[in-house]
Amino acid sequence: MTTATTTLAQAEEALPTGSTDAVGGGRRPRRRRAGEDDDTRRINWWATALIAVCSLTVLVPLYLAVVVALKTPDQLVSGTGFEWPNPVNWGNFAEAWERTSFPQALANTALITVGSVVFTLLTSSIVAYALARNIHRPFFKGVFFYLLAALFIPFPIIMLPLVKQTAILGLDNQAGMIVLYTIYGLSLNVFIYTAYIRSIPIELEEAARVDGASTWRVFWQVIFPLLTPMNATVGILTCVWAWNDFIMPLVVLTDPAARTLPLAQYVFQGQFNTDYTVAFASYLMAMAPLLIVYVFSQRWVISGVTRGSIK
Amino acid sequence: MSTLTQAVRTSSTGGTKRRRATRTRVETRRAMPAFYWMVWPAVIAFAAFHTLPVLIGIFFSFTNYAGYGAWNFVGLSNYANLFRDDRVLAAYGFSFLFAIVATILTNVISLAIALGLNSKIIGRNFFRGVYFVPYVLAILVIGYVFQFFFSNSLPKILSGIPLFRDNILTSPDWAWTAIVVLAVWQACAFAIIIYLSGLQTIPGELYEAASLDGAGAWRQFRSITFPLIGAFFTINVVLSLKGFLQVFDPIVSLTNGGPGTSTESVTLLIFRGGFSGGEFAYQTANAVIFFIVITVVSLFQFRVLQRREADF
Question: Is the ipTM of this complex over 0.90?
Answer without folding.
Answer: no
